[in-house]
Amino acid sequence: VQLVESGGGSVQAGGSLRLSCVRSGDTHSVKRMGWFRQAPGKEREGVAGIYLDAGVTYYGDSVKGRFTVSQDNSDNTVYLQMNSLKPEDSGVYYCAADRYVDLAGILLERTYVYWGQGTQVTVS
């Protein structure tokens, strides 16, 4: 499974961005996908996740009500719509995928096997 993120950039506080993550390869084996971010000097943080079959979503506390994760199965893409952005949302955003449902691991970095290269988001 290969993952490619896009959509990052620079935006002013209060603005919006939409990130995309396109998966290829053995796409039908993927059961869940997650969005993570990492700011300089900080650990990677789980932001949002989605179970692809059920469409159930989960969010980290810091982004609830502002970020929305969604999927378009027609083109194997997962999106992260980010609204009301804050400077503390800045960082490199990664999407991740795994073949197991793992009900407790949707926002846990260690439970994902496949990772994209990341896309930079800067909020000023």
Tell me what the structure shows.
The chain contains no helices and 11 strands. The chain starts with a strand and ends with a strand. By secondary structure, the chain is an all-beta fold. It is globular.
What is the share of helical residues?
under 10%
Distance between the terminal alpha carbons, to the nearest Å? 34 Å
Q: Which residues sit in consecutive blocks of at least 5 with pLDDT less than 50?
A: none
Instruction: Please provide the ordered H/E string of secondary-structure elements.
Output: EEEEEEEEEEE
Shape: globular
- The secondary structure category is mainly beta
Strand share of the residues? over 45%
The largest sheet is:
7 strands, mixed
Radius of gyration: 13 Å
Overall pLDDT, averaged? 96
Keywords:
124 residues; mainly beta; 7-stranded mixed beta sheet; 4-stranded antiparallel beta sheet
Gist of the model:
It is built from no helices and eleven strands. It is an all-beta fold and 124 residues long.
Please outline the helices and strands.
Blueprint: E1 2-6, E2 9-11, E3 17-24, E4 32-38, E5 45-51, E6 56-59, E7 67-72, E8 77-82, E9 91-98, E10 114-115, E11 119-123
Parallel strand pairs: 2-11
Antiparallel strand pairs: 1-3, 3-8, 4-5, 4-9, 5-6, 7-8, 9-10, 9-11
